[in-house]
Amino acid sequence: MPTIYDLKPAFQSVLRPIVRVLANRGITANQITLAALGLSVVWGGLIALTKGALWTLWMLPIVLFVRMALNAIDGMLAKEHDMKSDLGAMLNEMGDVLSDTALYLPFAMIEGVLPLWVTLFVIASILTETAGILGAVIGKTRRYDGPMGKSDRAFVIGSTALVLGLGVTPHIWVNGVFMIATILASWTVLRRCQKGLA
Asked: What is the CATH number of domain 4-197?
C-alpha cells in the first residue's frame, strides 16, 4: 500500500549535500538523532503548556518537517559515512517513539479535543513502530508498511494542527481525524505483523 515513506529516496537526494557538510564537520548521526528528539520534546512541551496556543499549532508542520529531515539525515550519516552503531540503532527507534509521543499527546490538552482518541492514537503509533521493529527481531526485515507509518502520521497531524492554528474551532472534526487515524494505525500494526511473518 502506498505511503509517504515511499518518497524517502527523493528526499534523501535533496538532503545529501547537507549530509556531506555535516559529516565533514564531525557531526555524528547520534547527535542528529538527539537533536530531533530534543526538538520534539521542546515543541510538544510548548503545545502542552499553552494548551494549544495558535502559534504552536500552525508552526507544528514546520517542526514536523524539520524532524523528518533530521531523521533522514541521521540515517544517511550512519549508512553513508560509516557511523552505524548499536547505540545509534537504539536511539533511532526509541527516539521516533518518544518524539511521536511528545508531539501528539499534548493535543489531549486542547479544549474540544477528546483525550481518549488522542491517547489511543499515540498507543497505536507506538505499536506500529514496535510491529515494524519486530520484523527485524525475528530475523527478517524492519517493516515500514502503511497506511499510517511515521511520515503519514506526521502529515495527518501536521495538517490538523495547521487548520487549528489558523483559528478553526476544534469540534467534532478533530476527534474524527484522531479516530480515523487510530483505526488506520491499528490496521498498519496488523499489516506489519502479517508482512513480518510472511
From this structure: 1.20.120.1760
